[in-house]
Amino acid sequence: MPLVNPLSPDHDPQTKELAEFFNETLGFCPNSVLTMQHRPAISKAFINLNKAVMANEGRVTSALKRMIAWVSSNATGCRYCQAHAIRAAERYGAKQEQLDNIWEYRTHNAFSEAEKAALDFALAASQVPNTVNAYIKEELHKHWNDGEIVEMMGVISLFGYLNRWNDSMGTDIEDGAVESAEKYLGEVGWQKGKHDGSKY
């Protein structure tokens, strides 16, 4: 059982309306958001932040944003967020070869140098202690402008919040997220862990 159980999707009408966003990104409203409804101001603020962070205002594609989210979640070890990020990357058109080889993004030719720089940034920014350094900065600025780097940092920070939330809450993982995680991450050891509803 999770630390706190999610509430019904109908609990807060304003959250329900905002959460339609997740039907596009994931195909369902995440249990994390349903749990945030215990304090609706948090659920509503979170959804609005998510929408702002994931808006495309430069060359950082929706698919790349979700791959950034995956690298960030992998660095912190949140299996719930790993599954959600890989599912959203799939739904937003990440190349099949990228999805199949996300674990090896640094060396695989399915990823451009610009994408590798972005994903290296996600990894460095998600580690504790933080390892963003002059080299990461230089590589980022070879390929991306300031606004695009801000977009990336928004994704990394958003998932920092989600990684802490879902790993601490032991949020039950949804079937659709499990399906995507097993498809793309199962061969390299992904498991539900505490997110299967019975191991917390």
UniProtKB/TrEMBL annotation:
InterPro entries: AhpD-like (IPR029032), CMD-like (IPR003779). This is Carboxymuconolactone decarboxylase family protein. The lineage of its organism: Bacteria, Pseudomonadati, Bacteroidota, Flavobacteriia, Flavobacteriales. It holds the Pfam family CMD. Transmembrane segments: none annotated. Coiled coil: none annotated. SUPFAM superfamilies: AhpD-like. Signal peptide: none annotated. Gene3D superfamilies: AhpD-like. Residues 40-122 form the Carboxymuconolactone decarboxylase-like domain.
